[in-house]
Amino acid sequence: MSEKPIRVLVAKPGLDGHDRGAKVIAQALRDAGMEVIYTGLRQTPDQIVGAALQEDVDVVALSCLSGAHLHLFPAVVEGLQKQNAGDILVLGGGIIPDEDIPELKEKGIVEIFTPGTNTKAVINYIKEKVGKA
């Protein structure tokens, strides 16, 4: 009997219209044996929280290129906490200035992956944190 695969919701919050990086990550996670749900573009934090709960995910991976990450990412964490789902791991990625990373981590985003991060590093991080390495 095999172990339940890690379930990851890949989401694009806000008005950002570029999703190539999110799709690359989604495919890499799927190729690594994870179940991946992709929300598509222009999702609100509430929509992302709802999808995470409905899909019973272990991880929410947020991608933002628009510069609204300081507002959108913490709103997803807060929404999950309000729904008693604060145990869902929230990761961020995209164009995130180095000076914003400490604030995002302080607000509950456990890790930030910036452009150029190897997909294997993301996969290994998720497996290690979810406890299915």
Index terms:
133 residues; alpha/beta; Rossmann fold; 5 strands
Protein architecture, described:
With 133 residues, the protein is of the alpha/beta class. It has one domain (7-128): Cobalamin-binding domain (Rossmann fold). It contains five helices and five strands, in the order βαβαβαβαβα. It has helices at residues 20-31, 45-55, 69-82, 101-106, 119-130; strands spanning 7-11, 35-38, 59-64, 89-94, 111-113. α1 packs across α5 (119-130).
Can you summarize this structure?
Its cofactor is adenosylcob(III)alamin. This protein is 41% helix and 18% strand.
CATH topology: Rossmann fold
Count of helical stretches: 5
Radius of gyration: 13 Å
Span of the ends, CA to CA: 17 Å
Coarse structural class: alpha/beta
The dominant shape is globular
CATH architecture: 3-Layer(aba) Sandwich
CATH class category label: Alpha Beta
Helix and strand topology:
Elements lengths: L6 E5 L8 H12 L3 E4 L6 H11 L3 E6 L4 H14 L6 E6 L6 H6 L4 E3 L5 H12 L3
Helix pairs in contact: 1-5, 2-3
